[in-house]
Amino acid sequence: MTTTAINPEMTMGDVIETIPAARRALFQRYHIGGCSSCAYELSDTLADVCRNKNILDVNEVIAHLHTAQELDEKMQVEPADVREWLAASRDFTFMDVRTSEDRGVDVIAEADILDFARSSEYLAMDKARLFVFGCDDGSKALDIAAYFVGHGFEDVRVLRGGWPAWKA
């Protein structure tokens, strides 16, 4: 995968547009952007954010963002592959992470609906178990996948293209 270069003078809006994993990666590693005390404006430059958050090496941050984007890409799985796994009766957990409002009546029969109230049950599952998450466009599923990876799960995937790609 070729990643478009980012530089310290890009605005955060441009960084996030160029590297969609940036928002998640900045919060996970540097605790930047997750709450009002660590927030930034989309018009701030990456260099400004690093300076304001006392991160001395902006080039290290850039390298981390590129690595995070590569990991997001590797985590994604094609709908055809998931269909093959289902047809072969592979044992894995396939989860629809959309809210009931997002989902409406568009239920994906092959997927379980993620029940956030049962998160402790999910987190108690075998860490080697394969999980595949899907949402409308992949962004929310990537957030949830990162949460599971952060809790030690080893085989976590996201449906590339979300449910529109599944239905295509």
Characterization of this structure:
The chain is an alpha/beta fold and 168 residues long. It has 2 domains: 12-74, no CATH class; 78-167, Oxidized Rhodanese, domain 1. It is built from 9 helices and 5 strands; from the N terminus they run ααααβαβαβαβαβα. It has helices at 12-18, 22-30, 46-52, 58-75, 79-87, 100-103, 119-123, 139-150, 162-167, and strands spanning 76-77, 93-96, 112-113, 130-134, 155-159. A 5-stranded parallel β-sheet has the order 1-5-4-2-3. Helix 6 (100-103) links the parallel strand 2 and strand 3 (112-113).
Structural class: alpha/beta
Task: Tell me the strand percentage band.
Answer: 5-15%
Shape: elongated
Helix content: 40-55%
Spatial strand sequence of the major β-sheet: 1-5-4-2-3
- Mean pLDDT reading: 91
CATH architecture of the largest domain: 3-Layer(aba) Sandwich
Q: Give the terminus-to-terminus CA distance.
A: 24 Å
CATH class of the largest domain, named Alpha Beta
Summarize this structure briefly.
With 168 residues, the protein is of the alpha/beta class. It contains 9 helices and 5 strands; from the N terminus they run ααααβαβαβαβαβα.
Which features characterize this protein?
9 helices; 168 residues; alpha/beta; 5-stranded parallel β-sheet; 46% helix; 2 domains; 11% strand; Oxidized Rhodanese, domain 1
Topology:
Blueprint: H1 12-18, H2 22-30, H3 46-52, H4 58-75, E1 76-77, H5 79-87, E2 93-96, H6 100-103, E3 112-113, H7 119-123, E4 130-134, H8 139-150, E5 155-159, H9 162-167
Parallel strand pairs: 1-5, 2-3, 2-4, 4-5
